[in-house]
Amino acid sequence: MKRDECTAPSYIDLRPFKDDQSEAFPVYPDLVNTLATAEACPDETIAYALAVCSAYAYSDVETVATMMARMGLEENRCVMIEEYVDVMFITSTSFLIQSKDGRVVILCYRGTPPTSLITWLTDANLDPTRIAIPSPSGTREGDVHGGFYRNVRSTRYEILSLLQRALAGKSIMRDDDSKLDNKLEALYITGHSLGAASASMLALTLVTDPAYKPVVEKLKAVYTYGGPMIASTEIAADCNECEFLHKRVIRYVYANDIVPQLPPSESGDFAHFGTGYQYKQKGKIELKGKPGWIQNDAPRNQLRNLLNIFDSPLTLLAGDFKLTGRLQFHASLRDHLPQYYIAALMPQGPKDRGVRSEFGD
């Protein structure tokens, strides 16, 4: 297992280069307090900030720390945890970002880079083993996606060990034993793509194991972007009977993103849980009344054949799938790219006109 860590600098002041003398960063000067005290779920500010975090999780620890400092977590501590075992299809990278004062921690899982996404879809996860776990109600066992579960399991204990330090008011950086001003008040879990699957899987694991109650008590919400299904229909239905998993696991889907329609039905009877929002390309977020709903759910059983006919990931990135005839299908890999999620979730209302991007514009 590989670890890397760093401390982010204060925000970068661009005022000498701007005519209006406005501050470019932080985007949200009160982000720590917003994360620590938010009651509404979802919260637009948090959804946008975590979308940025999930997108930059495809980079390195210094970049993640810097981008989150720009968003409002100045002088944060950031730790990257990795585990790769190719033959087991374990590819797990996560980042823990702790606010300077210790009140907030974000756990962000890295997703699958677009250049390797097709390999992941066709080879590693379309024929998953299924693992039985206790249901949230504790009344039965059900199945979850084995590949996603193994990825989470591979780094879970290291992550929880660092969270234990945060709960005790300590730095998450191993060589720093100094006491912080505050103990952990608010934990968020997030991720895009495979990272979204990992975030949901860890949330399910924490909620169903009484040993993790101290962590669950600090877990405010789980925000996911473009995540696939991870649980059997029975477990998903049970999750939606659990108040936290139903109301506090937020799933965002951009337009016709293909990944939330996976795995295909021939791989098993999978379903979503939590509350789903779909962002239309016209610029409107719609809350769907059915928690497990996702657009284009019907043709999932066609996805294997469609994916297998493409040899190059770049071919899929060039545009949408649009087939007619017997295969009534419309899905897009391009809509899965994280920059679309950032753009869609950037607050656009009149009160948000001063909100900047992670680049200060």
Can you describe this structure?
The chain has twelve helices and 15 strands. Strand 12 and strand 13 form a beta hairpin. It has 361 residues and is an alpha/beta fold. It has a single domain, classed as Alpha/Beta hydrolase fold, catalytic domain (Rossmann fold, 3-Layer(aba) Sandwich). The relative contact order is 0.14. Helix 2 (44-56) runs antiparallel to helix 3, helix 2 (44-56) packs antiparallel against helix 12 (338-345) and helix 5 crosses helix 6. The radius of gyration is 20 Å and the shape is globular.
Query: Which architecture would the CATH scheme give at its second level?
Result: 3-Layer(aba) Sandwich
Q: Fill in the CATH topology.
A: Rossmann fold
Shape: globular
Number of domains: 1
List the uncertain runs.
14-19, 289-329
Mean pLDDT: 79
In whole angstroms, the N-to-C terminal distance is 38 Å
- What's the CATH H-level homologous superfamily? Alpha/Beta hydrolase fold, catalytic domain
Determine the fraction of residues in helical runs and give it as a percent range.
Answer: 25-40%
| Topology pattern, helix = H, strand = E | EHHHEEEHEEHEHHEEHHEEEEHHEEH
For the structure shown, list the relevant keywords.
361 residues, alpha/beta, Rossmann fold, nine-stranded mixed β-sheet, 12 helices, 32% helix
Short description:
It is built from twelve helices and 15 strands.
What is this structure's SSE topology?
Blueprint: E1 2-7, H1 31-37, H2 44-56, H3 61-71, E2 77-85, E3 90-98, E4 104-109, H4 114-124, E5 130-134, E6 141-145, H5 146-167, E7 186-192, H6 194-208, H7 213-216, E8 219-225, E9 231-232, H8 233-239, H9 243-247, E10 249-254, E11 270-271, E12 275-279, E13 285-287, H10 303-308, H11 313-317, E14 320-323, E15 329-332, H12 338-345
Parallel strand pairs: 4-7, 7-8, 8-10, 10-12
Antiparallel strand pairs: 1-2, 2-3, 3-4, 5-6, 9-11, 12-13, 14-15
Helix pairs in contact: 2-3, 2-12, 5-6
